[in-house]
Amino acid sequence: MAYDVKAAFSVAASSLVLAFSIGLATTPTTAHAVVVAGDPNDFVVPAGTGLDGVVRYHTYSGGKAKTKCNGALLKGGRRVLTAAHCLTDSKGQVDRDQVSVFFDLPGQTVQTPRTGKFTIHPNWNGDLQHGYDIAVIELESEAPEGADRYEIYRGNDEIGRTGEVVGYGRSGNGNDGAQRSSDIKKHAAKNRLGALPDDFLGVFSNFDDTSPGTQLGFDFDNGDEKNDAFGLYIDEPDLGLGEEEGIFAVGDSGGPTFLDGQVAGIHSYLITNPQRPGRETSDIDEFHNASFGEIAFDTRVSVLAEWIDSFETEQPTADPGEDTVDVADVPAPGMLLLLGFCLAIFTSIRPKNT
Fold first, then answer.
1. Residue (of 156, 167, 175, 204) closest to 301 by Cα position
2. How far, in whole angstroms, is CA 218 from its chain's centroid?
3. Across residues 182-204, what is the average pLDDT?
4. Cα–chain-centroid distance for residue 328?
5. Strand pairing report for 108-111 and 325-326
6. Residue 162, pLDDT above cutoff 60
7. What's the pLDDT at 272?
8. How does pLDDT run across 9-63, given as a tens digit for each residue?
9. Tell me, what's the pLDDT at 164?
10. Domain tally for the chain?
């Protein structure tokens, strides 16, 4: 059976879903990440534990706050790797003019001055399944000294390996999907990278225009065969990692998946086939909500290493200007009024007559 993929967009804060944490909601809200099977507080990432280079940022257009997304600070300390869709419209055209990045460090949160210097991959056209959902933000000055810097993953052996999925956003239980919260926390979960977009050719119709090998897919398992998405759709059964299992969700866009401490993926989108009468599906419920049985796709960093490296070898495009500022001392203009969230993109799948 082939499946026709339909996209639905939901505005929300960054969030990860874990097999053992509380599920992520699709309703607009502030960030609170990772959905797990147990207590989500067990998966909060404390500052100073190696993930302080995983950042959150706000986007602006015409001085007005728009969305919130995530990113990862590259080794050079001046650039952040993120998702292109955080900075563009649905056609891949840039519709943001500034971003400001937040580093949550031990004892302080440091906000960088707003920058309008970011670059979208030239092959990004706004079509998530096509791939190339990746961008680089250049900071106005060097990142804080205490922020971790990351190498990118360059191997071609990602499939079958277990990655660490990190981001800010809502938490939730995989049985219920994402739940909103006003608490800003960074969470981390694990998931096994199990598929390339090529594996879905002839399965999901919207993958007909996919760029082979440019994305990394992983599903949200709960140990039950009927909710094993890869087992159902591509005959690659895997019941998951138990309570360590997790997935990103609405608003975690741009966050990283790590392999060996290096950035291997950038969170791009989710697909799901919500329950309907007579429909064959792995989804545990009828919602687009990062619940068990849904599938996540990262942009695959290794195949885009040459493009990313071209930025790290460049000199900064302008004088660094102001130093970074501590949010506690110099609040960002209108910061308390920021209600926009990163666009989290869910793709629903419905049976297609063949």
1. 156
2. 12
3. 89
4. 27
5. antiparallel
6. yes
7. 83
8. 333 333 454 443 323 222 222 223 456 656 667 778 999 999 999 999 999 999 8
9. 96
10. 1
Whether residue 258 contacts residue 163, with contact meaning beta carbons closer than 8 Å, is answered with: yes
CA distances from 145 to 138, 151, 169, 274 (A): 16, 16, 25, 45
Determine the Cα angle at 171 with ends 114 and 165, to 5°.
70
Sequence-distant (≥ 6) Cβ neighbours of residue 258 within 8 angstroms: 150, 153, 163, 164, 166, 264
pTM across the whole model: 0.83
**Interior CA angle at 245 toward 242 and 249, to 5°?**
150
**Residue 52's CATH number:** 2.40.10.120
| Structure tokens given for 46 | 């404390």
d(CA 166, CA 87): 20
Amino acid symbol at 55: V
In angstroms, the CA 165 to CA 18 distance is 9
| Residue 175 domain boundaries | 2-352
Averaged pLDDT of the chain: 80
**Which DSSP category does 230 fall into?**
H
